[in-house]
Amino acid sequence: MLNRVVIVGGGTAGWMTASYFKAAFGDRIDITLVESGNVGSVGVGEATFSDIRHFFEFLGLKEKDWMPACNATYKLAVRFEDWREKGHYFYHPFEQMRSVNGFPLADWWLKQGPTSRFDKDSFVMASVIDAGLSPRRLDGTLIDQPFDEGADEMQGLTMSEHQGKTQFPYAYQFEAALLAKYLAKYSVERGVKHIVDDVKHVALDDRGWISQITTAEHGEITGDVYVDCTGFRGVLINQALEEPFISYQDTLPNDSAVALQVPMDMQRRGIRPATTATAQDAGWIWTIPLMGRVGTGYVYAKDYLSPEEAERTLREFVGPAAAEVEANHIKMRIGRTRNSWVKNCVAIGLSSGFVEPLESTGIFFIHHAIEQLAKNFPGADWDPTHRDRYNDAIAHVMDGVREFLVLHYVAAKRNDTQYWKDTKTRAIPDGLAERLEKWKTQLPDSETVFPYYHGLPPYSYMCILLGMGGIDLKPSPALSLADGSAAEREFEAIRQKTARLLDTLPKAYDYFAAQR
Predict the structure, then answer these.
(1) Looking at the predicted structure, is the pLDDT value of residue 348 above 80?
(2) Which candidate, 159, 191, 189, 183, places its Cα nearest to that of 5?
(3) Rg, the chain, Cα only
């Protein structure tokens, strides 16, 4: 039986892995986490998918247990500003697209939308976010949604098994360093051995498998399975085992970021419960509102912009509050390790792969990898079937997200700088061009999006296509023969429900202040 796991690297990836495995396997697994005290974390304030709640549920944690400790807030959507044209914005919300007579409401909107705002006509969340409201009432009850919170039949499912069954109405935004600290305490209390030391050498046996790691002060550490959470450096998977890295930069050129953690009076500012991506001349700026501060950063391509220009633009964007805040410049490795499981080493987090954080996929990649490793944990015979299943799942998720992010740039109407002009002529992944042609005449569905699980359902593609405005779309021809009265009633029902929520939900800041 293999039961000794050595995790190299801490941060969010390392401690999420350690805590999940302790929750999954208890004392039947022996976990040692080795992290350097000299290597900083890349995490600068993280936003997530709504599926992340399953991670905390699996650990037995309620929101009141961990959210205050991580300055966490709710995220109901991604808000895209200036991608179509300056002054325009739209939402990609955590809310399933409604269906009328077998067609998505977005299709009906193309035919007979009541206004020019597909997101406000088709979803209630867009108006809730604009008003800065919480999806929970002050007594903790959840927004009225077709969702059974905590239903027994939904417990214990992986993210891929959940998709299509439910859509929880929000995700989380939190300080990554604080979450890592919280999960470290959780893990150590449950028996994880924590060593703060530098790895000086990775020894391989005659087969080329990792036999041990050597640290500066704690000597040799051995295990059965080694998990590489060393970030972009890939100390085990890329350096020691020499597994090659597949770059995505031919299709996603943004390779740099500069970030600021800006203290703010959030009661005065208010909390818009969304992550905002604001298009800039050579990339985009994220804005993540937390309790006590705002996390913000400029993601850009160094071929179009210098680090100095990026920092200056970001500080001007934030305003006077950024004056004394130290900037964190980050070089991003965009792409994935060819195989994230090689021999007895499994890469999780940035060592496995990364794409720009446009749709908050970093934590999602970690969570998905942890679930897949727990599901495919090897036996003493090291049957390669488990390794191959894991590698396929990781590759499919990352390649699918790559396609989805490329769609943002191809579909964006913005065309006012060389950076944005080049997004229309750059190569796109195999298969996406064919799919785009289909979507021009019929909106995406489960048969025409990327064919493997990657965390993004068809309605997400609809939101980007409808919101970005750069691709001409047509309603399904069949709708010209259909009675549109049911769709009109659905649009009206959304308007009425939105009005009720705007009258009854508390401000997001007020909700979190009351929970502390």
Answers:
(1) yes
(2) 191
(3) 23
Q: How confident is the model at residue 154 (pLDDT cuts 50, 70, 90)?
A: very low
Q: How many CB atoms lie within 10 A of CB 400?
A: 19
Residue labelled with tokens 């779309």: 473
The DSSP letter of residue 268 is H
Cα–Cα distance measured from residue 324 to residue 357, given in angstroms and rounded to the nearest whole number: 25
- 3-state SS, residue 147: coil
User: Which residue from 184, 161, 120 is spatially nearest to 371, judged by alpha carbons?
Assistant: 161
| 185 included as an active-site residue | no
CA of 392: how far to CAs of 16, 231, 319, 338, 385, in Å?
22, 21, 45, 10, 11
- Residue 165: the pLDDT is 58
Contact 94, 167 (CB under 8 A): yes
Q: Confidence class of residue 292 from pLDDT cuts 50, 70 and 90? A: very high
Distance of CA 411 to CAs 71, 121, 246, 464, 467, Å?
34, 21, 25, 7, 9
Of these residues, 22, 64, 75, 375, which one is catalytic? 75
Could you tell me which residues come within 8 angstroms of residue 436 by beta carbon, excluding any fewer than 6 positions away?
A: 407, 410, 471
The pTM score is 0.95
